[in-house]
Write a structure and sequence with these properties.
The protein is α/β, with parallel strands linked by helices and 318 residues long. It has 13 helices and nine strands.
């Protein structure tokens, strides 16, 4: 059992680390205007150790947001532009024969970074998309039978265009399930769009700003997330949400146990970002649309409603 002094020091460190994340949020809010909830979801996703999918039409700031997350959190970042001719080796790397030594030497690909921006991920073929699966799940890549660990922390932030646009390949369910959250940015409000038109380029503004947090703080807080308390009543609520998704006739398949774990982990991260050490139902409701929206497929009914919002509205808090 840790001593009181150790516990106090840990609490002070966690408070200082949380303050760094809040400064990162404030910095991002000055670059990505009017998207406070989406930005907080992004930080919560990374705090929970998950990967993030940003889906929207071109030109609303998806790539700028991904670069902003890396910059604000002090993470090394590599961008991979997904195209129809992209090969798996272009992502993970390749072994090259060295004539001098008579051996093969592994040359790491761009996936070896703390934050990997998979830009327009659904414009690549399924074979190229699948190259990310091992990296996202195992935090390693295997080339020629040899496993290579990825940096810590490791996050994939992928952007994708709507599936109905020309030249896109839908992500398979197995890969969608590896993303802890999916968010949409949407168009800015009129007043904020006017501010964008009057102001300087967002990426130029971002380059001038110092990093607000350090990777070490993110790693420490990820450990703290697992310590956030979830009561039995709270677990009842999570299970009720999952059960409703499985029983509703409008969904082809309900939420899996992995989705339930993801929902609870995201709620813990949301609570910790608020400075709380226990999850409340409002935390679960805040993250549910982003966590379950890409995991639930509607069948035989209108897809206009957000599946996560419908789930929250349908299931009462126990």
């Amino acid at each position: 059992m840790p001593s009181p002094e150790t516990g106090a020091a840990r609490g002070e460190q966690a408070a200082a680390d949380l303050e760094q994340l809040r400064r990162a949020l404030q910095m991002l809010d000055g670059v990505i205007l009017g998207k406070e909830n989406q930005l907080r979801l992004c930080i919560s996703c990374l705090l929970a150790g998950g990967h993030l999918l940003i889906e929207d039409v071109p030109g609303v700031g998806k790539t700028t947001l991904a670069h902003g997350l890396a910059h604000a959190l002090g993470l090394s970042c590599h961008r991979i532009q997904f195209t129809s001719d992209l090969l798996p080796a272009d992502i993970v790397g390749v072994s090259v024969y060295q004539r001098d030594s008579g051996r093969f030497s592994f040359h790491p690909g761009p996936v070896f970074a703390q934050l990997v921006l998979a830009d327009e991920v659904n414009r690549a073929t399924p074979k190229a998309q699948s190259a990310l699966l091992e990296a996202m799940e195992e935090r390693q890549v295997t080339v020629d039978g040899v496993s290579h660990p990825l940096p810590e922390p490791f996050f994939v932030v992928a952007t994708q265009n709507p599936a109905e646009q020309v030249g896109t390949f839908p992500l398979p369910e197995s890969q969608l399930d590896r993303f802890l959250m999916r968010i949409r940015l949407g168009y800015p409000e009129r007043a904020l769009e006017r501010e964008l038109l009057r102001g300087e380029d967002r990426r130029a503004l971002l380059r001038r700003l110092p990093a607000a947090a350090a990777p070490a703080a993110l790693l420490r807080l990820r450990e703290e997330v697992s310590q956030v308390h979830a009561s039995e009543a709270l677990l009842d609520y999570v299970q009720a949400l999952v059960a409703w998704s499985r029983e509703h006739p409008g969904y082809g398949a309900g939420l899996s146990p992995r989705a339930a774990i993801a929902l609870l982990r995201a709620a813990r991260a949301w609570a910790l970002l608020d400075g709380r050490r226990a999850v409340i139902p409002e935390d679960v409701q805040a993250v549910t649309p982003a966590v379950v929206g890409h995991r639930l497929r509607t069948e035989g009914e209108s897809t206009g409603d957000d599946p996560g919002e419908r789930l929250v509205a349908a299931v009462p808090i126990p």
